[in-house]
Amino acid sequence: MKKRVLFASLAAYPLFNRKIHEPFCGAELDLYTIATHLDTSKFDVHFLVADYGQPLKETYSGITVHRGQKISNSGMLRGILNFFRIFLVVWRVRPDSIFSEATGWLTVELILLKTLFRKKFIFRSAHENNINGFTDTRPYGKLYRRFMPHIDHFLLQNNQDISILQSTFGYTGKMSVVRNLQEIPKDIPLPQEKRAHILWVGRSEKIKDPELFLKLSLLLPQKRFVMIMPNLNENVFRNIASKARAIPNLTFIPGVPRDAVLPYFKEALYFVSTSIKEGFPNVLVEAMKYGTPILSARLDYDNILSEKNCGTITGDSAEEIASCIESMSKDTWETYSQNARAFALNNFNVSKGIHDYERLFLQI
Fold it and tell me: Where are the beta strands (DSSP E) in 132-249?
């Protein structure tokens, strides 16, 4: 008998229905990639998404996609109605296990329902905040901390997070590190001389520090910069968009469809990370699979820079990043590029890594 797995990621619907041009993040891409690569001879795969006005139930490439709650959970009445919608999906599907990623009301709801229906719940951290001093004072933050011990298996993005999870929350359940998975293109990465721009991709959040990338572009007016930022925080987005559009050598793009964003990574000379906190974001994987060196202002991302030489930590000022770009030799660039591509092939290749998830779903 097939194992029935219910994936839950509300904003993932645009990945199934490409006619829906709404933003999504790395967590949605993670679950979509895993769900679409499971062996359907072994698994009955279901996916809970938000209400985008689609039918109650649809099928995409063998995956049953269920319409759940509205994205917004504001207001007590809306919250109760949304919970009831999620309840109905779990009741209809009756999964052996439920798999979700990233914190929020949905996580709390799924933990309650997994207890009610006596199912297994697998949770994957999407960000350092999920495991390192999650201090959100809103009700779901408190409930998340309260219900964390009921997670049956905690999946983490890097090795450091295991010790952080234990020391911060005292979590003693099952834990394992499973890296982000993506399809790795077979074509050879572009050489340095055919790379067109310096790239930044991220959500419109202060924790991503997009201001630093704007300052960098002003310091190097002879270079071409591209910033891709979906509008997920209106105030941050408007502020950055206004400043970015006034910089002549910077192209600001307010989010693009999934298939259209990949050429920007492929043609990038560098990928610049300015984040203050992160887990292991998918944008790094997308850069590395095309052999694009990583320039990180602050974070080492599981030592891929200091130990694996997939790029370098520049320092957290625009002047330091600019100096790194201006002084980097062709040989150093090629070393970073080759290492990044090789690391992606060996660690993020979905055709290899999917077997780890299949074993987990079969054994839990």
Answer: 153-156, 174-177, 197-201, 225-228
